[in-house]
Design brief:
2 domains; membrane; disordered C terminus; Alpha-Beta Plaits; PilN; five-stranded antiparallel sheet; alpha+beta; 3 helices; PilN domain-containing protein; 5 strands; transmembrane helix; transmembrane
């Protein structure tokens, strides 16, 4: 007679497989959760580190912006000081300019030429006077061209004296002062009394 097992072994086997499946599923879920948690912690740590670096860089950028602003202020102050120094140098250089001009005028004006008026406007000089002959004026022009202080002599006109008895001719001459820039406030004309300059 055949052996028949009446125990519910299929149900027991099914329950055992379900237990194994649930165990594996639970273990997989726990391991997955642990891995996700670890990855999340890793990226959170990286994000926090990057945020700290960004904050550090922002603070350093603010410090550099302040230094740049200070450097710009110092550059502006430097330019202002350089302009003042340049102006002081111009003033120092032109302090004795009037005396030097008068000395040079006295040197280039030959005998027989008389100055009635001398005006200075900026770097321009205007000479008005009388001359005994045109040759003396030519000599004066040559001396002005060779001068180290004066340049660009230009004779605007020369005309015979209105008095028929007078042998003197009236003239008007322009000159330029070399190497000096006009300083505002020092452009007042000088008008010496008429007389002979040699």
């Amino acid at each position: 007679m055949a052996y028949i097992n009446l125990l519910p072994w299929r149900d027991a086997a099914r329950k055992e497989r379900q237990k194994q499946y649930l165990t594996i599923l639970t273990a997989t879920a726990v391991i997955s959760f642990f891995l996700i948690f670890m990855v999340n912690m890793l990226y959170s740590a990286r994000i926090d580190g990057q945020m700290q670096r960004n904050s550090y860089l922002e603070n350093e950028i603010k410090v550099l912006d302040q230094r740049i602003a200070e450097i710009r202020t110092l550059n502006e102050l430097k330019k202002s000081l350089q302009q003042r120094m340049s102006l002081i140098s111009q003033l120092q250089g032109s302090r004795n300019l009037g005396t030097q001009i008068m000395d040079e005028i006295a040197r280039i004006v030959p005998a027989g030429v008389y100055l009635n008026q001398l005006e200075k406007k900026g770097t321009s000089l205007l000479l008005i006077g009388k001359s005994e002959s045109n040759n003396r004026l030519s000599n004066m022009l040559r001396e002005a061209e060779e001068s180290e202080l004066l340049s660009g002599p230009y004779l605007e006109f020369i005309e015979a004296g209105k008095d028929s008895v007078s042998l003197l001719s009236n003239f008007k001459m322009h000159l330029t002062v070399k190497g000096y820039e006009a300083v505002q406030g020092n452009d007042s004309p000088a008008t010496p009394a008429g007389g002979r300059a040699q």
